[in-house]
Design goal:
Blueprint (H helix, E strand, L loop, with lengths): L2 E7 L8 E9 L4 E5 L4 H4 L1 H11 L8 E7 L11 H11 L11 E3 L2 E2 L5 E2 L4 H11 L2 E5 L3 H4 L7 E4 L2 H8 L30 H13 L3 E4 L6 H5 L2 H4 L5 H14 L12 E2 L7 H5 E2 L4 E2 L1 H4 L4 E4 L7 H5 L2 H6 L1 E5 L4 E5 L3 E6 L18 H8 L4 H5 L3 E4 L18 H19 L8 H7 L4 H14 L3 H17 L7 H9 L7
Parallel strand pairs: 3-4, 5-8, 8-9, 10-17, 10-18, 11-14, 14-17
Antiparallel strand pairs: 1-2, 2-4, 6-7, 12-13, 15-16
Length: 499
């Protein structure tokens, strides 16, 4: 047979569109042409494939070889098509049966020796192959990652010879059995380790229960970072679909998914991070920190030290839960449903309002420092809390209710179950019709809230977020309706952060 077809997958964002590798052998002077919009790394694959075939004791056909990567208008990059190209040539020249390739999809980069090397983005390809009803051939180093797609037959290979023997029926390979190597669940830091800070712990509980964004403001050493690191342990566990979404993103960004799967990610970019580092970008768009924090927590420490233009790019993802990176040829959409937790000092020196009285910042310096944060960005943060300095006297953790991660997480789980049963989403993601339906107030409370927002000069967006926080407070108490006390506490979280 002079024509063979091999199925593979490209990588576009976190998606894996199908690619068919067509290999045709014709009479004429020996040559190899590769078409189908290949990038440089793909063009170089013909040299890798030639050496791999020869070093695996196969014959490289001395004929005119044409390789087409279809569809032709889809950009292809990386070495992920090497294995499919080699199999196409071998099948077209009759060295492996073409019929054995019909129900297979292949991914893998070839070494000159014929060894199969790992590639990025295997998990999205595995999920797509499962949906297409085909088996997936991957490098052995990617097999554990591909096996996260339950129900998919994964064939793991280390060498081209090994795969050829399998296809020829000489040494059939058994489907790879998952070893659970990626399920290295690490214990979360315990909330009980944080000394004092009862108000901050309460805000953390509310943020976790309703998936609200949170801003801590206070002098250095008050435990802002310590508190933020406890938030992932309070959040409900990821379900299988959410865990696969997270792992697929990290598969695209690196050779392995999460270090501890299926835990929620906790990302802490440095304040010198650029806009593309935060939201993603590049000539070949890659996910940024907000996408790597999908279904988890994005913690921005020293918030005013970030470049203002960098922070402004967070505004749309905070509302939509996704980021669209536009390029001349295409648009790539990345998910970005993250929970923002930020920390800042109240003034340039950090000690405004500290009992020691060491702050010497002028009002102009304080105003300029806080002016680095725009009103629209702060408006999208539901909970603003000032964190005061605790006593330096060390004492054992308090045995207050919800003082540890386990008991607090149990309350959060009950509140989330109420929300999902009532409206299908966490309170922070309620749209306007859902807000009217599930956050209705009595007439007196409605007038009271309107007057309070008018006196404080709050926007309509801020008023809606107050209602969502009040709904979360009611859910934590298993209350059917929002009471005046819930509204009052929610309003307290909208004050300007002070030292």
């Amino acid at each position: 047979m002079s024509l063979a077809l091999v199925h593979s997958r490209a990588q576009v964002g976190v998606e894996a569109p199908a690619v068919t590798v067509e290999a045709h052998l014709a009479n004429g002077l020996p040559s190899l042409a590769l078409v189908g919009l290949p990038e440089t790394a793909v063009k170089e694959s013909k040299d890798r494939v030639r050496s791999a075939i020869l070093n695996s004791a196969f014959e490289f056909p001395p004929r005119r070889i044409t390789l087409n990567l279809a569809p032709a208008d889809l950009p292809k990059d990386g070495g992920r098509f090497d294995l499919a190209i080699a199999l196409g040539i071998l099948a077209a020249s009759g060295q492996v049966p073409a019929s054995a390739l019909e129900r297979l999809e292949c991914l893998g980069e070839l070494a000159l020796s014929g060894a199969v090397r790992p590639v990025q983005g295997v998990l999205p390809a595995a999920l797509a192959a499962r949906a297409a009803g085909r088996s997936l051939v991957v490098p052995m180093a990617n097999a554990e990652e591909a096996s996260l797609a339950s129900g998919l037959e994964v064939i793991a290979v280390e060498h081209l010879l090994e795969l050829a023997a399998h296809l020829n029926g000489q040494a059939p390979l058994a489907p790879y059995q998952a070893q659970g190597l990626l399920r290295r669940v690490q214990p979360y830091p315990d909330l009980a380790e944080v000394q004092g800070q009862l108000a901050a712990k309460r805000a953390l509980l509310v943020a976790a229960a309703g998936c609200h964004n949170l801003l801590f403001s206070g002098p250095p050493g008050t435990g802002k970072t310590l508190l933020a690191s406890r938030l992932p342990g309070l959040l409900p566990p990821l379900d299988e679909q959410e865990a696969l979404e997270v792992a697929a993103i990290h598969s695209v960004a690196s050779h392995a998914p999460l270090d501890a799967w299926p835990q929620r990610p906790f990302r802490t970019p440095h304040h010198s991070a650029s806009g593309p580092a935060l939201v993603g970008g590049g000539s070949r768009p890659q996910p940024g920190e907000i996408t790597l924090a999908h279904q988890g927590v994005l913690f921005l420490d020293e918030l005013p030290e970030f470049d203002r233009k960098v922070l402004e790019v967070l505004r749309e993802p905070l509302e939509s839960g996704q980021i669209v990176i536009a390029r001349a040829r295409d648009k790539v959409r990345f998910p970005a449903r993250f929970q923002l937790v930020a920390a800042m000092n109240p003034c340039p020196c950090g000690y405004l309002g500290d009992p020691s009285g060491r702050c010497r910042c002028t009002p102009e310096q304080i105003a300029r420092y806080r002016g680095k944060l725009s009103g629209p960005l702060l408006d999208r943060i539901d909970l603003h809390l000032s964190v005061a300095r605790e006593s330096t006297v060390l004492h054992p953790p308090a045995s207050a209710p919800d003082g540890d991660t386990a008991s607090a997480a149990a309350r959060v789980a009950r509140a989330r179950q109420l929300q999902l049963g009532r409206q299908g989403v966490a309170n922070a993601f309620l749209d306007l019709p859902g807000l009217r339906r599930h956050c209705a107030l009595q007439a007196e409370d409605q007038r009271w809230l309107e007057n309070a927002c008018e006196r404080l000069g709050l926007s309509l967006r801020a008023a809606h977020r107050i209602l969502k926080v009040a709904r979360t407070l009611a859910d934590l108490e298993q209350a059917e309706t929002i009471a005046r006390g819930h509204l009052a506490e929610a309003l307290q979280y909208r004050g300007e952060p002070q030292g």
